[in-house]
Structure formats: structure tokens, C-alpha cells
Amino acid sequence: MNTQWESLITWLQNRLQQPLPGYEAQRRMMSLHRPERLKAPDHARESGVLILLYPEADEIQTVLIERSKDGSVHSGQIALPGGKKEDTDTDIIHTALREANEEIRLSRNEVNIIGRLSPLYIPASNFEVNPVIGSCAHVPALLPSEDEVASILRYPLRYIFSHKKEVEVRPSGQPQLTIRTKAYLLSGNHFIWGATAMIFSELESLWDEWHSYHAP
Fold this sequence. Notes:
Blueprint: H1 3-15, H2 23-26, E1 45-56, E2 59-67, E3 78-79, E4 82-84, H3 92-104, E5 112-116, E6 120-122, E7 127-135, E8 149-156, H4 157-161, E9 164-169, E10 179-185, E11 191-192, H5 194-213
Parallel strand pairs: 1-7
Antiparallel strand pairs: 1-2, 1-4, 2-3, 2-8, 5-7, 6-7, 9-10, 10-11
């Protein structure tokens, strides 16, 4: 197994126990229309999403999904596998793993939980999202849910973090509204924006910190 992979996972396990970059890192990829320091109201619903990391071809890869176009608030968007916390979930980590299993058929037994990033409130759906980072020592076999996932996308973190640009988007259900926002560009006219981009922005901050820490 490559030493870069082992180094990052060991470093992250320790780093995620310390104060996180939080909002200051999230806001770097924040929509220009989003209010500053938006806090979750008491009636917000909890959700968990999974950032899965695994090594392949000397790269550290992650998994994204293209949501099915079903007319919902986040219809058709590029996102992390995840969803609403159910009463039967023991905690938010259980939520993230259960949803990943439902959406991309990821076996819970394949995932080693590393830690969590800062929560983030999404006003459009009234969810407070809790990002969970997990690792898999091999390339996982995945299968998209027919009902919820149009496709599964796999990308190296290095690629995602090095392709950023401002874009204009029209949110699902609000075709009359155009939002100017920062995004991580992917292939095939796909891009990561909104809450998912803000989550990745905090991860990017840690990625940069790790690289700085390991610089010769």
C-alpha cells in the first residue's frame, strides 16, 4: 500500500480530534447568495453524508453521486452519499453508513471511520449535514440505487481540489433563479457546488495542511 495513503489516514485520525478549520474553510466555496454564518434552527433535521477515501493508482480517491432527477430540492446535483437520520439510527455515523449502503451498495464492513468534519446547515432542505470521513483499504465495488442515484463518480482528491471556477446554476424547482457560485469542476459538465462544495472546502483545507506538514 502506498506510503502517501498510510500517511494521510494516520494524520487525519489524529487531526480530526483537534479543532477543525470549520466555517472559515467552508465559506471559501460558499454561494454569493448564502447569508454569512448561517446557523441551524432548532427545528432543523439531522442528516449524515459519507466522504469515502481509498487508494488507487498512487492517488487518494473519493466517491460522489449524481442524484436522480426527481424534482426534489437537490434533484440532479452532484453530492456525497447520505441522507436523513432515522429514529432507528444509533448515531450520525450509523446514518452515513446506512445511507451509503442504500445509495451505492457500500458494505459497512469495508469502511473504517476516521472522524467527522464540521456540520453545515442547508436552508433549502432544512437539514444540518454532518460529514463523516471513512476509509477503505481497497477499491470498493459499488452499485447505484435505481431510485436515488443516476450515476456514481470517482475522482482523485488532487483533481477535485485543483479544478475550481465560478459558475452560474439554476436550482432545481427554481428555474427563474440564477445563482453565481464557486464550484469544483468535474468532467462531463458536472461540478460540485453549494453545501457539498463547502464540505469539500473544509477537507481541502485539511489536505493543504497535511501537505504542508509533510513538505520536505
